[in-house]
Amino acid sequence: MEYIYGALLLHYAKQPVNEESMKKVLSSAGIAVDENKVKALISALEGVNINEALKQAAIAPVAAPAPGEKKEEKKEEVSEEKKEEAAAEGLSALFG
């Protein structure tokens, strides 16, 4: 993730996003540089319009809720519903 952040930082600063500048950014942040990851990222970004990619990412729908939000509430509701159904089944067995 830090490699992508480094590329975004360079792009924001209007600096060239290349291997040399990525290594400088990462090492200045105290991150051990993995040459293969740097080369792979630079290769993957070749020909990509970062501004356009950021615009598309900004309008893309969010697939997952933020941690700790409605997802937990939904689980609680489901488990409560299951408990009620189980209790009802148990009662129906008693009364035939």
Please give the structural blueprint.
Layout: H1 2-12, H2 19-28, H3 35-45, H4 50-59, H5 70-95
What does this entry look like structurally?
It is a single chain. This protein is 71% helix and 0% strand. It has helices spanning 2-12, 19-28, 35-45, 50-59, 70-95. It starts with a helix and ends with a helix. The protein is mainly α and 96 residues long. It is elongated and about 65 Å long. It folds into two domains: 1-60, Arc Repressor Mutant, subunit A; 65-96. Helix 1 crosses helix 2 (19-28).
Quick description:
The protein is mainly alpha-helical. It contains 5 helices and no strands. It has 2 domains: 1-60, Orthogonal Bundle (Arc Repressor Mutant, subunit A), CATH 1.10.10.1410; 65-96.
Between the first and last Cα atoms, what is the distance in angstroms?
Answer: 60 Å
Radius of gyration: 25 Å
Please give the CATH class of the largest domain: Mainly Alpha
Percent in strands: under 5%
- How many H/I helical runs? 5
Named CATH topology of the largest domain: Arc Repressor Mutant, subunit A
Using the 3D structure, state the CATH architecture of the largest domain: Orthogonal Bundle
Low-pLDDT segments: none
The run of helices and strands is HHHHH
Give the fraction of residues assigned to helices.
over 70%
Structural class: mainly alpha
Mind summarizing the main beta sheet? none
Global morphology: elongated
- Count of β-strands: 0
Mean pLDDT metric: 78
